[in-house]
Design a protein that fits this description.
CATH superfamily of the largest domain: P-loop containing nucleotide triphosphate hydrolases
Keywords: ATP-binding, Nucleotide-binding
Oligomer: single chain
Bound molecules: adenosine-5'-triphosphate, magnesium ion
Mean pLDDT: 92
InterPro entries: AAA+_ATPase, ABC_transporter-like_ATP-bd, P-loop_NTPase
Shape: elongated
Distance between the termini: 24 Å
CATH architecture of the largest domain: 3-Layer(aba) Sandwich
Protein name: ABC transporter domain-containing protein
Largest sheet: 6 strands, mixed
Number of helices: 11
GO molecular function: ATP binding; ATP hydrolysis activity
Radius of gyration: 23 Å
CATH topology of the largest domain: Rossmann fold
């Protein structure tokens, strides 16, 4: 097997003549948790489905766990776990029956014992006879993850796995992901949550079906080359109207009584202070540390690939 769990070049897919994934190159090393970020419709699910061998690319090439994306899809499907964006378990089956069904599909040996261990590991033993359709959002996702991992895959593809999960249940979910990764399993997880992005060793930012940036958190933060300031003022609405017109400011957002601005220019904070002062607005401008959410907003606003 190559040292990359996933390696694809030029992967392309259109639906009804509209590009969903556009000449995508990806290299995801084995054994890491990799976050897959991007706006709605940027092509995350389509990419994941092509990597799984569930959707055939129009063009490109690549391997998943060393298996060819086009010729060895059966081997890929046997060795990966895929958790779909919407709950794909059976609502009319109990928790145990869902696990039993999946373990039959994968011809798992010692089926009942494996199911018992899985129920225990995912804290679902007391729920095993409950219909999946009546589980809470958090438990449903935990069952979906259990179904995804029961056959001990080497690579797990999770498509927004915690979209309807409360913060506490999300922490439990990530605890299981860390335990799984510690066993050498590669995890690709798509998410819109920046706290989840913070938990990943490597990040891929996607927009309009293209990779905008790929690298570690530090690489992404250092390469973005953007500065952020917080502006406190009693006249926040007026300040917003003024600053909105200044081309030097790349992005402007309101957080309660604070405006946050970003710019590529290191002196944009001083300049903002001067402009507001000239307009008769009293404001305090302070520099703000740059984080992954800022990097996301910046990258999406300026779609050009950054090589790290
Ligand atoms: N089966 C399909 N038929 C037609 N268009 C599709 C199909 N699947 C995806 N698309 C289109 O391809 C583009 C990429 O969609 P995709 O679901 O991959 O994005 P995404 O990044 O997963 O979005 P989200 O964050 O909303 O889940 C979108 O414009 C979508 O409408
Ligand atoms: Mg999606």
């Amino acid at each position: 097997m190559s040292k990359f769990a996933i390696e694809v070049q030029g992967l392309t897919k259109s639906f009804n003549g509209k590009l969903a994934v556009d000449q995508l190159d990806l290299s995801i090393p084995e054994g890491i948790i990799c976050g897959f970020l991007g706006p709605n419709g940027s092509g995350k699910t389509t990419t994941i489905r092509m990597i799984c061998g569930l959707l055939k690319a129009d063009a490109g090439q690549g391997t998943c766990l060393g298996f060819d994306l086009f010729k060895e899809t059966r081997n890929i499907r046997k060795n990966i776990g895929y958790m779909t964006q919407k709950f794909s378990g059976y609502h009319d089956l109990t928790v145990r029956e869902n696990l039993s069904f999946i373990s039959r599909l994968f011809s798992i040996q010692n089926r009942e014992e494996t199911i018992d261990q899985t129920l225990e590991k995912f804290a679902l033993t007391t729920r095993q006879n409950q219909l999946a359709g009546y589980l809470s959002g958090g438990l449903k996702q935990r069952l979906a993850l259990a179904c995804c991992l029961i056959h001990q895959p080497k690579l797990v593809l999770l498509d927004e796995p915690t979209a309807s999960v409360d913060p506490s249940a999300r922490r439990d979910f990530w605890e299981i992901l860390y335990q799984t990764a510690a066993q050498g399993v590669t995890i690709l997880v798509s998410t819109h949550y920046m706290d989840e992005a913070n938990r990943c060793q490597e990040l891929i930012y996607l927009s309009n079906g293209r990779v905008l940036a790929q690298g570690s958190q530090q690489q992404i933060l250092h390469s973005s080359n953007i500065f952020i300031w917080n502006i406190y003022s009693q006249q926040i609405d007026y300040a917003y109207k003024i600053l909105k017109k200044i081309p030097l400011i790349q992005n402007i957002s309101i957080f309660d009584q604070t405006l946050q601005i970003s710019s590529k220019h290191p002196k944009a904070g001083d300049l903002t202070q001067m402009i507001l002062h000239k307009e008769g607005i009293f404001a305090t401008v302070t520099s703000h540390p740059f984080n992954l959410e800022d990097a996301y907003v910046h990258l999406i606003a300026q779609p050009k690939k950054i090589y790290l």
